[in-house]
UniProtKB/TrEMBL annotation:
Keyword Transferase attributed: yes
InterPro entries: PhoU, PhoU-like_sf, PhoU_dom, SpoVT-AbrB_dom
Keyword Electron transport: no
Molecular function via GO: DNA binding; kinase activity
SUPFAM superfamilies: PhoU-like
Pfam families: MazE_antitoxin, PhoU
Keywords per UniProt: Kinase, Transferase
Protein known as: Histidine kinase
């Protein structure tokens, strides 16, 4: 760490010198324009970039299938606006995989394809994206998925179960958008400034979005389990599972209300309510376990997995409540 003394020039202008090593490493010289970004009691400075969009190049010669999909997704989440995929000769299978990966990412489009190159570009303006709106949408989708998964289980509605499974892709797309926005705020203070949110708050949204994505995964798991059920389930067990679901939703909704609360007192009160309800759910789970003892082992195991997914969803709501408490705490 280096220190500099602030000096006054012209009687009213404060000046401070820049370390030469940093200036050299970042291409700063006489005449270079610098951007200043205030962040609380800190002030970040970066060289003014002439490039409006960040470009990344990836050699996909040895990539295919899931590995290629993950590579494209990783570059998207990392914040590249233009992704150039190159190889001596890109195969038809690789092109198909790239197109499928692009369809699962918000804003991406294939702009150019040649024998040895595929160019993908993000057509959305990052400054127009709202991490708050994305997390709000994730809340609606994940809770509707969980609701319909339990309804499909109760009514043995396989069509509804398949619909829940299909909606998981929408939730995953939003999760990747939130991750992309969050990583952008870590990389440059300009991104946080455009969002109009402190970076700590972006972290809180990102952490909560991860919990919502996991809730969606468990709703999908319940839907898959429902597809394997052929015979009616006992009414008392279905009723108990529905009551457990109702408790879990109360936890998640209350925790999300706490996260979005404008006043610290309201956020703290709601978050503590959600945490208390999580502890109360454990007693209901034990009661359901007693009911499952009377079933044959195969059905008891299947329903035990359903109960575990609902319980875990409530736990994820408790994690959101913990994040809301941290968000509401005084800033050092």
């Amino acid at each position: 760490m280096e220190t500099r003394k602030v000096q006054v020039t012209g009687g009213s202008t404060y000046t401070v010198s820049i370390p030469k090593t940093w200036a050299t490493d970042n291409g700063v010289e006489a005449g270079t324009e610098i951007e200043f970004h205030p962040d609380g009691d800190s002030l970040f400075l970066t060289p003014l970039s002439e490039e409006d969009r960040t470009r990344g190049t990836l050699d996909i010669s040895d990539l295919s299938g899931q590995a290629l999909t993950r590579a494209v997704t990783t570059m998207y989440v990392s914040g590249f606006d233009v992704i150039e995929l190159e190889g001596p000769e890109i195969t038809t299978e690789q092109r198909s995989t790239v197109r499928e990966a692009v369809q699962g990412l918000v804003g991406l489009e294939v702009l150019e394809e040649t024998r040895d190159r595929v160019v993908v570009q993000d057509l959305l303006d990052s400054s127009e994206l709202s991490i708050h709106n994305a997390v709000t949408r994730m809340r609606l989708i994940s809770l509707s998925m969980l609701e319909d998964a339990i309804a499909a289980l109760s009514e043995r509605d396989h069509d509804l179960a398949r619909d829940v499974i299909g909606r998981d892709d929408d939730l995953d797309r939003l999760w990747l958008v939130v991750s992309r926005i969050f990583r952008a705020t870590l990389r440059t203070p300009k991104a946080a400034e455009e969002l109009g949110l402190p970076r700590e708050e972006c972290f809180d949204y990102h952490s909560s979005a991860r919990q919502l994505e996991r809730i969606g995964d468990h709703a999908t798991k319940i839907a898959h389990l429902t597809l394997s059920i052929e015979e009616p389930l006992p009414d008392d067990v279905i009723e108990a599972v529905n009551e457990l679901y109702g408790d879990a939703v109360e936890v998640i909704d209350t925790a999300m209300d706490a996260l979005f609360a404008d006043e610290s007192e309201d956020a703290t009160r709601l978050a503590n309510e959600a945490r208390t309800r999580v502890r109360a759910i454990d007693e209901r789970v034990r009661a359901i376990d007693e009911l499952l003892r009377d079933l044959d082992p195969a059905r008891a195991q299947l329903l035990g997995l359903v109960v575990d997914s609902v319980l875990r969803s409530a736990d994820y709501g408790g994690n959101v409540a913990e994040t809301a408490l941290q968000k509401a705490a005084p800033t050092p």
